[in-house]
Write a structure and sequence with these properties.
4 helices; globular; 3-stranded antiparallel beta sheet; 15% strand; paralog of FGE (formylglycine-generating enzyme); alpha+beta
């Protein structure tokens, strides 16, 4: 073979392999197949739920059966459009848009107290468990600018609102005459009468079908996008659970009002005003950043602590209305 053609062929093959490894084709789901939000809620009837997963992470393994009164819960995560309506009506400024109070962060230099939020940034190399090098605090990141200055939510009115701290979620809920779910309420609604590992059964992707927006591939360096998405997706692009709820699993984490205890204690909820920005509450559901090799938390039982004063670009919420409220 002519050397010129040999080198050209070798270069072509290398580029093809590199392209597959670094940026494989994603069969993006059509938005026409996604739910157009109706901004309604679903009645969850009273019953009981067995919380936890004996095969899950250490903080899930204590299983408890609790009774739940009936309540209403949002059909999908609160969207950018819904949150924008709240901000327009009230003039509310989110935690990420405010300069932090020095009294809340003693020991932090004044010049380091700037408005912003946490943004996922894929690292060039994954150093293994225990080394988290894919998050950065991004000045100027907030719900309107999810990736920082220069980014926007234009044409993303149906995407979940993110960079929401606990106080922001609670303020929105109160404005709507609603509340945030307890951990037990959230898990009860997500399980929808099932006591399986996943909301849809025991297998993560039965027959190769994906039921939630999660990460496929080697986290945090390669997302294959086998589920049709790399990154956050608009609400309602996956099948609803038997309760008629969308995206209870994956896409973005969701706030609950429970204080985080590693032993999964079911305790009275601390008054919101008693919580400092570093107080940890339970978030549920996992997100588009959860993968099989890291953060296997796209399960109803899974739980994670989150500081109330910090939002991220994979954290949102939905609200509830308790019967009688």
């Amino acid at each position: 073979m002519n050397k010129k053609y040999f080198y050209l062929a070798a270069l072509f093959i290398a580029l093809m392999i590199g392209g597959v490894l670094l940026y494989p084709v994603v069969h993006q789901r059509s938005e026409s197949a996604c739910l157009k939000p109706a901004y309604d809620d679903v009645l969850i009837p009273a019953g009981s739920v067995r919380l936890g997963d004996s095969q899950g992470y250490y903080d899930e393994r204590v299983r408890k059966t609790v009774k739940i009164d009936s309540f209403y819960i949002d059909r999908h995560e609160v969207t950018n459009a819904q949150f924008a309506e709240f901000v327009a009506a009230t003039g509310y400024k989110t935690v990420a848009e405010r300069i932090p109070d020095p009294d809340d962060y003693p020991g932090v230099a004044a010049q380091d107290l700037v408005a912003g939020s946490a943004v996922f940034t894929p690292p060039e190399k994954f150093y293994g468990p225990g080394v988290v090098n894919w998050w950065r605090f991004q000045p100027g990141a907030d719900w309107r600018h999810p990736d920082g200055p220069g980014s926007s939510i234009d044409a993303r009115e149906y995407w979940p609102v993110v960079h929401i701290a606990y106080a922001d979620a609670l303020a929105y809920a109160k404005w709507k005459g609603r509340d945030l779910p307890t951990e037990a309420q959230w898990e009860y609604a997500a399980r929808a009468g099932q006591d399986t590992r996943y909301s849809w059964g025991e297998d993560y992707a039965p027959a190769g079908k994906h039921y939630a927006n999660t990460w496929q591939g080697a986290f945090p360096v390669l997302d294959l996008g086998d589920d049709g998405f790399r990154g956050i997706a608009r609400v309602g692009c996956f099948k609803a659970n038997p309760n008629g709820l969308y995206d209870m699993i994956g896409n973005v984490w969701e706030w609950t009002k429970d204080t985080y205890h590693p032993a999964r204690k079911i305790t009275p909820h601390a008054a919101p005003e008693a919580r400092s920005p570093t107080h940890q509450l339970v978030i549920k559901g996992g997100s588009f950043l959860c993968a099989e090799n890291y953060c296997l938390r796209y399960r109803p039982a899974a739980r994670h602590p989150q500081e109330t004063g910090l939002g991220t670009n994979h954290l949102g919420f939905r609200t509830v209305r308790n019967i009688g409220n």
